[in-house]
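Hi D.,

Good news: the full-assembly prediction came through. Inputs first.
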Amino acid sequence: MKSYYDRPLLKGPHWGANVVTYLFLGGIMGGLGLISLLSDDRPEPAMKKLRKATRYTAFALAAINPPILISHLGRPERFLNMLRIVKFKSPMSLGVWGLVLYSGAAGANALRELADDGIVPSALRYVAPSATVPIQALLGAFMAGYTGVLISATAIPLWGTGKRHIPAFSVCSGAASASALATLLSTLQGNHEVIPRLERLEMAASALEIVTIADFRKRGGRATAPLFEGRVGKRLRDYTILGGIVVPFVLNAVGGAVRLPKSIDALRSIAASMLTLIGGYVLRESLIEAGKLSANDPQAAFRQPS
Amino acid sequence: MATGFFTDATLCIGCKACEVACKQWNELPSDGFEFTGNSYDNTSQLSGTTWRHVDFVERESFDESGLKTSWSMVSDVCKHCTNAGCLEACPTGAIVRNEFGSVFVQPDICNGCGYCVVSCPFGVIDLIEAVGRGDDAKKYGLATLHDDRLNDRKTAVQATGGVAGKCSLCFDRQRVGMVPACAKACPTESIQFGEIEELHERAKRRVETLQERGVEARLYGADDIGGGIGALNAFFLLTESPEAYNLPVEPVLPSTRQTMGYAAAAAAALTLATIGWAIFRGDS
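Then the structure:
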């Protein structure tokens, strides 16, 4: 096969742990938007507790994600450069606007809960109409999805090959991680009633995620090798596929089928949630690291699939 | 009227005057020095601070007199694509198309996010890691990097962030009616600068002449290169297949992959929302 001294054709991403964290939290914000919608306007006190927990957490994440992005850009004012333009052809541009709008909706929903809890004057709840709940869920779906499109709509062979798969499993991973985080919070709050539902949602998201990842591996050929082989492949297999999807799925299934003593059940649920969250982070990390390797393979880059 | 480069591999003598002229005019810092062992190519690649790069392709063949080695050299450069991946990806609008049809990076608007880097199907644009301290950095019009970050080079981009850099097609020189530095310095007119249509005419005549002489000459990027990218404002005359010069054969414009991505994400989100609705509110 012809090449130029096997030199890489492409330049890999200059992205590290801060971008991985940004993408990971973006996915969780998306999933929290969904759970906030699902638990909205329900009479049960347990659902009310879950609703509050997801809304406060979503707002907290929306507040810490811009600083994480800024830590990648270097200086705070560089973030503002992205707010001088809206560009539909750039997932990075749309994503920043998605983050800004999501923060607004999440802020409105958190404000309404604060008013409900009597922490701020109750009149303030009228500042935030309840329409912001479905809006946050929609923007959340966009947040979780764009973190995948951002990666797949590039020239990196691995990422471009995954133009359908990467956005799909990013959404699933975000929903699974958000369910896991909500389960953890509910366990800490002693809000055990909602946990079976959250775990079922997590199982559904994880199942769809692993099917999509398996299909990506099957169809990818040479371009996907950096993600599934070698050091990155081993890490993805151990932490995401086994530790982050299969083991939590089994733990959640056991929790749903068998009635365990309370303390053991809490441990089971905490372990499943932690593993899912770790798996979600490693998935994003592996995608970025494998993208760096993929950029170094000129043969995959010379002829790209549309 | 768009301007561009026509770079002819059959005229290049590998002198690297274009690389030097480009570095001097654009005040680009050194990339260090390393013997690669890859023919006479010790530059290796285009980068944020190397905007012209001479490829040295060694060809070996046998005949009655034994092993024969010949070279094909060509000076690589930013292609200034009709539909440019970097320009579309840039979230700040720092990368623009200027009045000469060239793709230009405005360093004062670039925020160093690095998204253009992974969006160039030709691997041209890159972040400039460290360009000097204090006044030096200001002189280049580039981001000032903290001294402690400069001492720890591997985290310079990630923690402090540089800006993206690539060929500007000598925007500043063009504005005052001058020819870009590389084309001016090229001693064999292997690099020709001019209006695109005129360059196309010249290139076609050149290919015909070479083919009459039995040289396998082909143009790269003069016509639509496919994948949604369109024609290249900087195009090439090659005598080997594109891969031999580290040029892609079937590149794809990254933004064409977006629609499918959003659709797949929406499908996944809708599926999970439906399942979630059944789990949480199926009983109401």
